[in-house]
Design goal:
Number of helices: 11
Radius of gyration: 20 Å
CATH topology of the largest domain: Quinone Oxidoreductase, Chain A, domain 1
Number of strands: 16
Strand content: 15-25%
CATH class of the largest domain: Alpha Beta
Distance between the termini: 29 Å
CATH superfamily of the largest domain: Medium-chain alcohol dehydrogenases, catalytic domain
Bound molecules: NADP nicotinamide-adenine-dinucleotide phosphate, zinc ion
Structural class: alpha/beta
CATH architecture of the largest domain: Alpha-Beta Complex
Number of domains: 2
Oligomer: single chain
Order of helices and strands: EEEHEEEHEEHHEHEHEHEHEHEHEHE
Helix content: 10-25%
C-alpha cells in the first residue's frame, strides 16, 4: 500500500518502482522470484544496486517463521553491498558510483536515549529492521537484500573501502558486527582466554576478530571436520564439544565465551567453563528457550548475557577495522537459484563459512 501525503506528514509522497527479488510466501514455501516496490528516493535517501548479499541464519529462521513473527511475503537479506546509482538532493555522504553497504537496520526513531547513544539497534520505538520490519514509507513489511536494489536513508548506509573484496565484505554487515560489538563491549583483549561456540557465519568472524583483538581463542564445534579450518582462521585451540573429557579440561578457565549457535544446545556446558566473574554472551538465537542451571551462575558469580548486532557508528568502526587489518569473511558464492539448497546446508552446519549471493544471478 502506498502512503498518501498529508499536511501533517513529514513524508514526501513516494512513487514506488518495481524491483526483482526473491521471496518466501509462507513458512512452508521455498524462496522464489518475486516483484517488490522500492520508493523513489527521498531527499536523504541513497539508491543502491545490490551486487552481493550474504545469507545469515536469521534469514532462514525468519523465512520458516521460527521466531513466530514473520510477515509474508518475506524478502530476506541484511548483508548488503552494492553501488550507489542515485541520491536524494540532500545527500552529502554518497554520490553516484560510490560503493555502499547496508546491514540489519534501515531506520530508527533517532530521538530516544539509545539512538542518541549510537545504539539504534536498541531504539525504544524499535528500529526498522532491513526485512520483516514495518516500512514507514510504503507501509507493509520492509524487504531485504535478496533483491536488485534497495533505497535507504544515508544515515543507515555504510561506507566500504574501494579496494574491498566486495563479496567477502558483505557478511561483515551482520556476522561481522554481531561478533565485533560484544567482543568490544566485554573488552576482549590480550591476556584473556576467550571461547567462540559454533563455527558458522558468526562464529568464524568471532574467531577472526577475537584473535585480532589479541585474546587466546578457543573454538568449540560439534563438527570435528572443521578443526583444521578453525586453526587456520585464527583459533589457538579447538574443542569438539561432544567430547566431555576435552570440555572438562577447560573448566573454570574462560574470561568470556561468545555463543553463536543457531539451534538448541546445552549452555550449562559452557557456563561451567567460565572462571570467577566470567561472562557467556549469546548472539545465537535458537527458536526455543535454553534451560540454565542456577548453580552454574551462582557458583563463580558468572554472568549470562546477550547482544544484538551493533549500532551504525560501531558498524562503520568495524568495517574500518576489518579493512585496516585485512579481515573479510570466508565465503562460498552462489547464484540466487541455489538459495533453497544453501538453507538446507545451513541447517546441517555445512557452511564454510558464509554463503554470499551474487546478485547478477537475479537477472539470469
Ligand atoms: P550458521 O552459519 O548456520 O552457524 C551456526 C553454527 O552453529 C553451525 O555452523 C554449527 O557450528 C553450530 N550448530 C548448528 N546446530 C547446532 C546444534 N544443534 N548444536 C550445536 N551447535 C550447532 O548461523 P549464523 O548465521 O552464524 O547465525 C547463528 C545464530 O546467530 C542464528 O541463530 C542467528 O539467527 C543468530 N544471529 C543473531 C544475531 C544477533 O544480533 N544476536 C545476528 C545475526 C545472527 P559447528 O558445526 O561448529 O558446531
Ligand atoms: Zn544476520
Amino acid at each position: 500500500m502506498i502512503m498518501s501525503a498529508s499536511t501533517d506528514s513529514p513524508l514526501t509522497p513516494a512513487a514506488p518502482r518495481a524491483v526483482r527479488a526473491w521471496s518466501a510466501q509462507s513458512a512452508a514455501s521455498q524462496l522464489a522470484p518475486f516483484s517488490i516496490q522500492r520508493r523513489d528516493p527521498l531527499p536523504t535517501d541513497v539508491v543502491i544496486d545490490i551486487l552481493y548479499c550474504g545469507v545469515c541464519h536469521s534469514d532462514l529462521h525468519t523465512v520458516r517463521n521460527e521466531w513466530r513473527n514473520t510477515v509474508y511475503p518475506v524478502v530476506p537479506g541484511h548483508e548488503i553491498v552494492g553501488r550507489v546509482v542515485k541520491t536524494g538532493r540532500d545527500v552529502k555522504r554518497f554520490k553516484e558510483g560510490d560503493l555502499a553497504a547496508v546491514g540489519c537496520m534501515v531506520d530508527s526513531c533517532g530521538a530516544c536515549s539509545s539512538c542518541l547513544s549510537g545504539l539504534e539497534q536498541f531504539c525504544e520505538q524499535v528500529a526498522t529492521f532491513t526485512y520483516n520490519g514495518t516500512d514507514k514509507h510504503l507501509g507493509g513489511p520492509t524487504f531485504g537484500g535478496y533483491a536488485e536494489s534497495i533505497v535507504v536513508d544515508q544515515a543507515f548506509t555504510l561506507r566500504i573501502s574501494a579496494n574491498a573484496d566486495l563479496a567477502a565484505t558483505a557478511p561483515l554487515l551482520c556476522a561481522g558486527i554481531t561478533t565485533y560489538s560484544p567482543l568490544r563491549h566485554w573488552k576482549v583483549g590480550p591476556g584473556q582466554k576467550v571461547g567462540i561456540v559454533g563455527l558458522g557465519g558468526l562464529g568464524h568472524m568471532g574467531v577472526k576478530l577475537a584473535r585480532a583483538f589479541g585474546a587466546h581463542v578457543v573454538l568449540f564445534t560439534t563438527s570435528p571436520g572443521k578443526a583444521a579450518d578453525a586453526l587456520r582462521l585464527g583459533a589457538h585451540e579447538v574443542v569438539v564439544s561432544k567430547n566431555a573429557d576435552e570440555m572438562g579440561k577447560h573448566a573454570n578457565s574462560f574470561d568470556f565465551i561468545l555463543d553463536a549457535v543457531s539451534a538448541a544446545h546445552d549452555v550449562n556446558a559452557y557456563l561451567s567453563l567460565l572462571k570467577l566473574d566470567g561472562t557467556l554472551t549469546l548472539v545465537g538465537a535458537p527458536e526455543a528457550p535454553l534451560p540454565v542451571s542456577a548453580f552454574n551462575l551462582i557458583f563463580g558469580r558468572r554472568q549470562f548475557a546477550g547482544s544484538l548486532i551493533g549500532g551504525i557508528a560501531e558498524t562503520q568502526e568495524m568495517l574500518d577495522f576489518c579493512a585496516e587489518h585485512g579481515i573479510v569473511s570466508d565465503i562460498e558464492i552462489i547464484g540466487i537459484q541455489r538459495i533453497n539448497e544453501a538453507y538446507e546446508r545451513l541447517l546441517k552446519g555445512d557452511v564454510r563459512y558464509r554463503f554470499v549471493i551474487d546478485m547478477a544471478s537475479l537477472k539470469s
